UniProtKB/TrEMBL annotation:
Lineage: Bacteria, Bacillati, Bacillota, Bacilli, Lactobacillales
Protein name from the UniProt record: Hydrophobic domain protein
Keywords, in A-Z order: Membrane, Transmembrane, Transmembrane helix
Source organism (scientific name): Lentilactobacillus parabuchneri DSM 5707 = NBRC 107865
UniProt-listed Pfam families: DUF389
Transmembrane segments: 21-40, 46-67, 79-97, 117-134, 141-162, 168-190, 211-232
Length: 408
């Protein structure tokens, strides 16, 4: 059984705190690799960058210095940490200034909203790291901690924010990096104190120092706790809204849905709802714990037709993060193209245009739409054409909504 000792911990921490140009060059390379991974939305690349990054060493050194009340070691680790942070931010800023990819990827956006879970990951990750450093053979725990606590990505995101003059990215990612660094250091300090007590050493951490660390920890945790509550609350509300839609709007196709503040916005395609039905829907919100929310219902169908403006807005779907593939007359996806072609061949003089679209929402669920624009002659055959379209949908085993478009 491997022994855990303060001597081993001291040796492992001290050896990684020497300032060498090779180490800083490795850090710079790791930062650029992480930036590329974030830029192209590649998680494996980001993980690889975290594995080669030496950024954990000075943070562990700060925590060890605090736990030992060693001002000299604390100063040395802090200086190295600040140098590496500057190298990281400068490297990331330079990369994103010259990168041709300016859109914020999912990987970048994920680093702008820290929560209480990030605090827990950093603290327990740091504690695992200090235990590993106190063993003669730490195994692969430290690299695992580097990946779990994700120090590199928020630092890169700060560089992205600076290069694009975006304060929300700078503040959000900077706060996430602060959480990770502080609680890794705090966990290291706690682990160091624990090992010293276990070894029978006399502690020389003053009550003033303990109180100061506790106050700083509380100040850092408060915003992340608020953010965590917001995420949990938002998840609950979305779940309730999904239940409401499933039970109350099962015959409608939901083209768009969003929650802004206390307002629920739904855009639907299907049988038109009258005022009494809409009023009943609004009243039923309380049955799904959504009382206090206002329901704004946009019906994209008027009479037998979907309106031109709403159809165009629906096909774009750019305002709520959905992606759409849509093309009139010539191209669709697989079975949609077949249906489009068959209808055009069967009703060449009755159909002016057929629009097919495939929508992938935020939940990665794919839904399809077939919108038919009739000629003046074809309007008298709307019922027949609708039956033919629905039969083709069924025959081709496609889950698609068939609608008619007027005056595009």
């Amino acid at each position: 059984m491997q022994q855990i000792s303060t001597n081993t911990l001291n040796t492992n921490v001290q050896k990684d705190l020497n300032f060498t140009w090779s180490t800083q060059a490795i850090l710079f390379c790791a930062i650029i690799i992480a930036c590329i991974g974030l830029n192209v939305d590649s998680a494996p690349v980001v993980i690889g960058a975290m594995l080669i990054s030496p950024l954990m060493a000075p943070i562990v050194g700060i925590g060890y210095g605090l736990g030992n009340s060693n001002p000299k070691l604390l100063s040395k680790a802090t200086k190295l940490f600040l140098i590496q942070v500057i190298i990281g931010v400068v490297g990331a800023t330079i990369y994103f200034l010259i990168s041709p990819l300016n859109t914020a990827s999912t990987q970048l956006l994920a680093r702008t909203e820290p929560t209480l879970w990030d605090v827990l990951i950093a603290f327990f990750g740091g504690f695992a790291g200090v235990i590993s450093s106190a063993k003669k053979d730490g195994g692969n725990v430290v690299p695992g901690v580097a990946i779990a606590t994700a120090l590199m990505p928020p630092l890169c995101t700060v560089g992205y924010g600076i290069s694009h003059l975006n304060p929300s990215f700078i503040i959000g990612a900077g706060y996430l990096f602060l959480i990770n660094a502080f609680f890794i250091a705090l966990a290291t300090a706690s682990g160091t104190i624990f090992f010293r007590i276990r070894s029978g050493e006399k502690l020389n951490v003053s009550l003033k120092q303990q109180a100061l660390i506790l106050i700083i920890a509380i100040i850092i945790v408060i915003p992340s706790s608020i953010s965590a509550y917001s995420i949990v609350h938002s998840s609950y509300i979305n779940a309730q809204l999904s239940q409401f839609i499933e039970n109350q709007l099962s015959n409608q196709y939901i083209a768009k849905q969003s929650i802004s503040g206390k307002k629920i916005q739904l855009s639907v395609i299907g049988q038109r709802l009258n005022d009494d039905q809409i009023k009943s829907l609004k009243q039923s919100l309380k049955d799904y714990h959504l009382d206090g929310y206002q329901l704004s219902l946009t019906q994209l169908t008027k009479g037998n037709y979907i309106t031109p403006k709403e159809f165009q807005d629906y096909m774009k779907q750019s305002d709520n993060g959905d992606t759409v593939q849509a093309n009139p007359n010539s191209s669709g996806d697989g079975e949609l193209t077949t249906i489009q072609s068959d209808l055009n061949k069967k009703y060449p003089k009755d159909i002016s245009n057929i629009y097919v679209g495939q929508v992938t929402d935020k939940a990665k669920a794919t839904k399809q739409l077939i919108a038919i624009e009739l000629s003046d002659k074809g309007k008298t055959k709307r019922s027949t054409i609708e039956k033919s379209a629905n039969k083709l949908v069924k025959d081709n085993q496609v889950s698609a909504v068939v609608q008619f478009v007027s005056g595009l």
